[in-house]
Specification:
It contains 4 helices and 3 strands; from the N terminus they run βαβααβα. It is an alpha/beta fold and 90 residues long. Strands 2-1-3 form a 3-stranded parallel sheet, sandwiched between helices. The chain starts with 6 loop residues before the first strand and ends with a helix.
Amino acid sequence: MAHNFKYDVFIAYASIDAQYAKRLYALLSAIGQRVFLDSEALIGGDPWPEEIRQAQQDSMLTLIVISDRADSAYFQQETQLTLLEKTGAG
C-alpha cells in the first residue's frame, strides 16, 4: 500500500547540534524538500513528544545528525527508537 508522506525528511538531532540541523534544514528546503525540524515546525505549548513522533511517522526518511557531542541519554534513546521503527524491528 502506498503511503503519502507529509514530509520528505525528518531531521533528528541532539540540542547541542542544533546549528547543524538548521543548516541541513535550510539546504534541503532550498532544493524543494519538505523537511520537518522541530524548532521550525513547533511552538511553545505544542505537545512536542507527540508531534515529533507523528512527524517521524509522516516522513519518508529520517536523517539523524550525530556528532561526538551528542551524548545525551534522551537523544540516544530517541535515536534507537527511530531506527527500530524505521527498520520494522520495533
